[in-house]
Write a structure and sequence with these properties.
Helix content: 25-40%
Number of strands: 19
Mean pLDDT: 93
Shape: globular
Largest sheet: 8 strands, antiparallel
Number of helices: 13
Structural class: alpha+beta
Distance between the termini: 32 Å
């Protein structure tokens, strides 16, 4: 066995950069390396990690071991079945470069293409089309992983063995705590072009925007709203779209040309915490004014529509040295009032969100601790240096829990153990299955340590 170890004590963090730690990084060459690393590991000593784009501490483990699967990069497409088999270390970006020219797209994609498929499964990512298509797990046909005993397992959602089906859904959204995923097979969707046909509208208040978003979900496959959270009426911009088809744009000669947006570095002088009430207000004003009051049938490339922030490779540094907290929650329709209340509470506490996004979510799947559920989801980015932030978020946690809502684990960096157990009612069943898959409790993370399991 030849394990590659980079910087035996390397500093890592989530994308929010709020809680950095030092960990040992292992890069296995093959499945046997993974098995040996697991078999030689002690309790609570190991967690897999992709490209570090989860915002919180789910993919880090202080002073312990991290497995990165950068050597697991195989991609194989089955055109006749519209399925793709990939190594868990393959990124969405690499997949898009491979499948879009062939006339395929991912059935679900999050807001960044710089995540691995292993990370997408562990987080059960969702996108702008959850109201219609659900989350990524809905399209997975097979997962291959190494469990906590170093044994290889093949899990499918339709297996005749009930135990394997349970383990499949425990791994979905399981935050990498049931085993090391090394390969997955999932369905693709067919597309006729690499363009999205986009309609954009501006709204002067939150009520009219939320009503429009409900109606848009009946018409469009993709929809998302950006909010000016500092405006007295909480105005915003609604963006909706569908895949463009050939009959709409016959004049375009390269319909399936995939041209990813080039990366631009933010100048380093923006790293010094320049985000405050005034700069955020100015940004919001400019963003709102640049958006058209109403524009229909605009052609946008895939990168622009799905991954607007990916064009700035180090945008997470504009929040200053202490990083930022991304707070994302979902509440049922009966608690829709919490969207405006949350924004008002944060504004009163001087916790100003640089990026505020609102979406509708559809029905949940069978993932025991998967985040999405039917209702409203709001995500906000707030500098971690704000002295009022953590007490304010603790207060909001309780409001969300009382209404049957919950926080997105892939973005969490600070919620309490009590909050987790209160808001994920299937977590005890998940813990039972995790114990079956990992009886020696090899897999752990700073997040699981914080949740005390």
């Amino acid at each position: 066995m030849k394990n590659i170890v980079n910087n035996s004590h390397k500093k890592i963090s989530g994308w929010g950069r709020a809680n950095p730690v030092y960990s040992n990084i292992f890069i296995p060459n093959d499945i046997n390396d993974i098995k040996n690393i697991i078999k030689n590991s002690k309790s609570k000593s190991l967690i897999p990690r992709g490209l570090g784009r989860s915002y919180g501490d789910v993919a880090q483990l202080k002073d312990k071991n991290i497995i990165e699967l950068s050597n697991f990069k195989d991609i194989k497409i089955f055109n006749e079945k519209s399925t793709l088999k990939v190594g868990a270390g393959v990124s969405i970006s690499e997949i898009l470069e491979f499948i879009v020219p062939k006339g395929f797209f991912l059935p679900v994609t999050p807001g960044t293409k710089y995540i691995t498929i292993g990370g997408a499964i562990a987080s059960d990512v969702h996108g702008k089309n959850h109201h219609k298509d659900g989350s990524f797990a809905n399209y997975i046909e097979e997962i291959k992983l190494i469990d906590g005993l170093g044994n290889k397992k093949v899990l499918t959602p339709s297996d005749q063995n009930k135990t394997f089906v349970e383990q499949f859904w425990a791994t979905i959204g399981g935050m990498g705590l049931t085993g090391i995923i090394y390969e997955a097979t999932f369905k693709l969707i067919k597309i006729e072009s690499s363009f999205i046909r986009v309609d954009t509208s501006r709204f002067e208040n939150l009520d009219s925007l939320m009503e429009a978003l409900i109606n848009a979900n009946k018409k469009y496959r993709y929809s998302v709203a950006w909010l000016d959270s500092l405006h007295p009426q909480i105005r915003g911009v609604l963006t909706c779209g569908d895949h463009a088809i050939k009959t709409h744009y016959k004049h375009i000669s390269t319909l399936l040309n995939y041209d990813p947006k080039p990366l631009i570095s933010i100048p380093s002088f923006f790293y010094h915490g320049l985000l405050n009430k005034y700069t955020v207000r100015l940004f919001n004003e400019l963003w709102f004014r640049k958006s058209p009051k109403s524009r229909e049938k605009e052609l946008q490339k895939i990168s622009k529509f799905f991954y607007p922030l990916d064009g700035l490779k180090n945008w997470n540094r504009v929040y200053g040295a202490e990083g930022f907290v991304q707070y994302q929650f979902v509440v049922p329709d009966s608690a829709s009032y919490l969207i405006s209340k949350t924004l008002d509470i944060l504004k009163d506490a001087q916790c100003f969100s640089f990026l505020t996004v609102l979406k509708r979510l559809g029905d949940s799947n069978q993932g025991l601790i998967s985040f999405p559920m039917r209702g409203w989801t709001l995500s906000l980015d707030v500098p971690a240096s704000n002295s009022n932030l953590y007490s304010t978020l603790d207060y909001l946690d309780n409001l969300i829990a009382k209404e049957g809502g919950r926080l997105y684990l892939a973005k969490d960096s600070r919620q309490s153990s009590d909050m987790f157990f209160k808001t994920y009612p299937n977590c005890f069943e998940w813990l039972r299955i995790k114990k079956e898959m990992d009886p020696r409790t090899i897999f752990a993370s700073d997040l699981s340590e914080r949740y005390k399991f």
